[in-house]
Amino acid sequence: MGTFVISKRLNDEYKFEFVSRKGKPIFTGSNFELRFECEEAIESFKASIETYSFLRFKTAKGKSFFKVIKGDKVFAVSRKYSTELMMQKGIDEIVKYGAQSEILDFSSGDSIFSEM
After folding, report:
1. How far is CA 19 from the centre of its chain?
2. pLDDT (tens digit, 0 to 9) for every residue of the chain, 116 residues total?
3. Which segments of 1-116 are extended strands (E)?
4. Which CATH code fits 3-104?
5. In CA terms, which of 16, 41, 57, 61 is 20 to 30 Å from 68?
């Protein structure tokens, strides 16, 4: 099952990524000034995933990627995939697991491992 991971950017804004079962990022969301805004965006997505669409694109170098869109607003942009099949598998994972995915918050920067 995929997971939403909240983290902090270098400019102190928050972002989230949807990460696959294998730990690879599938897409990254927009910047948010406050952490709870990030959480609200994720919860809104999870509650109404069927209202979002996936627009597919190709880079100049032939890599495939997609944007997650609701209405005219871009919710997230995927990583670059080497093939369209791999991109479709990423989209399928979002559709299948997105609504029941857990949220992990790594924005505090605290180490989860003890100091040695």
Report:
1. 7
2. 889 999 998 888 999 999 988 889 999 998 999 999 999 999 999 999 999 999 999 999 999 999 999 999 999 999 999 999 999 999 999 999 899 999 998 887 654 444 54
3. 3-8, 14-19, 25-29, 53-58, 64-70, 73-78, 102-105
4. 2.30.29.80
5. 61
